Amino acid sequence: MKRIGTNLSPCRSQRANIETANQTGRTSSSHRAEQTGCAEIIPSRSETSRSVVEQLEELCLDVDRYCVSNPQVAGTERFLKRSRQELRVAKLLQGEESQDDGLLREKVQGSLNNLNGLKCELQTAKEAPGTVAIGARFSYLREQRANKTSVEVDVVALCGQAWIEVKHLGSSKQGSGWFDSPGHCKGVHLQAMELVRAANAVENKILWKAPTVVFRFINGKVDQEVTQKLQSVGVVVVDDSFTQPFCQALPPQLPPPISVNLDIT
């Protein structure tokens, strides 16, 4: 995959500009995802919301352990709250199992999607070196706008040098289904441009260097046309065609500076 060699900054400087934010759940898994711990959850007719509750309970325990062992990572407590909120919703759906209509199945599928998304964000945070935040918001001033706008980043890694957007290509999104939709393709492309624009904003640069924006697609291969569109705006694209450990898809991390020159003239 194409790599954008961006020289970026140390952890402590980048973290000063991070605000934790709620992230919308997205999904994860199958062949490649099984290798990363984000195995896809595909509901069958016999599957009920009970299994979702059990898996969310396990996820909450996993997130809690991550919070304890990684106190330096911003946003872990908020991420745990999101996981617990999904667990509460799943338990409510479990109480509605007798009403097995189309609407209930749709709600359960939504919980599954959110569960998969949470699992993949957590797994990416674990796999990426130098993770400093899960669910971060960066603001910047757009041209011709008086007020600042902001973007959300799933995982901030490499001590702030990489902004990682995690996306799941589940069974309902693979092949010609998802990316052939003009709306979905355009949405991903616009999101990529917005993230790159924010990364290059003066207020988000550290030592005049912008973070590298990475789109990680789990459980599938992205169409070549989509990959080229994302790469054309400066995004590093990682999907199942990359067979090495995920950390090797990221740009090399620069060492912290050993000296600083201060001009007071």
TrEMBL record:
InterPro entries: DUF5614. Pfam families: DUF5614. Residues 1-37 are annotated as: Disordered. Residues 1-30 have a biased composition (Polar residues). It comes from the Eukaryota. Residues 55-240 form the DUF5614 domain. This is DUF5614 domain-containing protein.
